[in-house]
Design goal:
The chain is mostly helical. The protein is 75% helix and 0% strand.
């Protein structure tokens, strides 16, 4: 149905000839825009209802009584249903540190939250299918789990700013919301997320449409195709300085994959953008020292490169 609407809009209403570069680009743009926004509204609403069961106080209590490994795994899983970008996840991370959770567990959460989120999941599912979406979740949680364990084993608490440990988080007693309140929260949360990502989505789809219609396949394959053994680290290093969220990056990934870019290389590029963003590093500097930021960024960068190669090997 959506494909028919996009084709009708481009080739009949706009009168553009099928098979032309402009026609292919516009058809990609309109079809993906309709599909992505429909999926986002439905899935984000459902995830928001689930998220209403995990307020910050309950999340801290859930993680606070867990041992290492179990706590890392739960924190990585919790990141899936928490804020969708790194900058909104950082305040919750700060709350975890201030409440005394082990540093490794807090970093498992920090890595998972922007990297594995509902927006990325629904877009990957819609664009590439459920198998790719599930592999994406598995690799993202695994990355967050092991990176958190490594940071915890290094005993880097001294690299957290001293004032953070002097702050005591108060406990707040709140009544459990009713289902109507949960649905109201999900409605408002969905409106908020769509309002914050719609421009990123359209820009990403627009860039993806341009790549789909105008960038020659030979160009992509020459520099980032399977024949280049350094394609994955190059893609990651390019992605780190950029700032976007998965909503803006995934349509570009789709277009690159359609041009022949290996899936692992494309996903490594996306994960580097959303997991190690410059604004996130700036906000983290308020609570941790530069050496820990460098260690965190280095561990995640190496892990993403490994995941990229792994995806290329199995897909």
């Amino acid at each position: 149905m959506l494909k028919y609407l996009a084709d009708s809009l481009v080739y009949q209403l706009m009168g553009i000839k099928p098979g032309t570069m402009l026609g292919e680009a516009l058809d990609f743009f309109f079809y993906d825009s309709m599909k992505v926004f429909l999926l986002l509204v439905v899935i984000i609403f459902v995830v928001a209802v689930i998220r209403s069961f995990f307020p910050p106080e309950r999340s801290r209590k859930l993680l606070g009584n867990r041992r290492e490994y179990v706590g890392n795994f739960l924190a990585a899983c919790l990141g899936i249903v928490t804020p969708f970008c790194s900058c909104s996840a950082v305040p919750m991370f700060i709350g975890f540190v201030e409440s005394g959770l082990p540093l490794g567990i807090t970093f498992s959460f920090l890595i998972s939250s922007p990297t594995v989120n509902e927006v990325a999941l629904v877009m990957l599912w819609g664009l590439f299918g459920w198998k790719i979406a599930m592999i994406y979740i598995g690799t993202g949680v695994t990355l967050a789990f092991f990176a958190g364990i490594i940071i915890g084993k290094l005993k880097l608490e001294h690299l957290v700013e001293d004032y953070v440990y002097r702050i005591k988080m108060g406990e707040s007693a709140m009544a459990a919301p009713t289902w109507m309140e949960r649905f109201a929260y999900a409605r408002d949360y969905t409106k908020d997320i769509i309002g914050r990502v719609w421009l990123f989505v359209l820009i990403g789809i627009g860039l993806g449409a341009w790549i789909h219609g105008y960038v020659p396949m030979d160009f992509v394959l020459k520099y980032a195709g399977p024949g280049n053994p350094f394609a994955v680290p190059i893609a990651v290093l390019i992605g780190i300085p950029l700032y976007s969220n998965a909503a803006g990056a995934i349509p570009i990934v789709q277009a690159l994959v359609e041009k022949g870019l290996p899936m692992g290389t494309a996903l490594a590029f996306m994960m580097s953008i959303v997991a190690i963003s410059t604004p996130e590093m700036i906000i983290l500097r308020k609570v941790i020292k530069p050496k820990l930021i460098a260690i965190f960024a280095g561990i995640v960068t190496v892990a993403i490169i490994i995941i990229g190669y792994l995806f290329n090997a199995i897909l």
